[in-house]
Specification:
Layout: E1 2-4, H1 11-26, H2 41-50, E2 56-58, H3 65-68
Antiparallel strand pairs: 1-2
Helix pairs in contact: 1-2
Length: 74
């Protein structure tokens, strides 16, 4: 697994990270940003991610044995 603080390239990963953090904020976690531009949990989470305050892990996408043999995955 790769730990990163940068904004992910994948839109799916971006949405997953922001939504997980927004749920934490709705549950009572304090924002990491001193003066958030918005009070909405999703906007605060986006701002935290853009400033590199959130740390997340992305799985390694290594090739499987079938991919190495040149066979296509279905």
């Amino acid at each position: 697994m790769v730990v990163s603080r940068e904004t992910p390239e994948s839109q799916f990963a971006y949405v997953s990270i922001v939504s997980r953090r927004a749920r934490q904020l709705m549950g009572g976690a304090r924002p990491m940003v001193d003066n958030p531009k918005s009070h909405k949990p999703t906007r605060v989470a986006e701002e935290e991610l853009a400033k590199g305050m959130l740390e997340y892990e992305l799985p390694d996408l290594g090739e499987s044995e079938e991919d190495k043999d040149g066979k296509r995955r279905k």
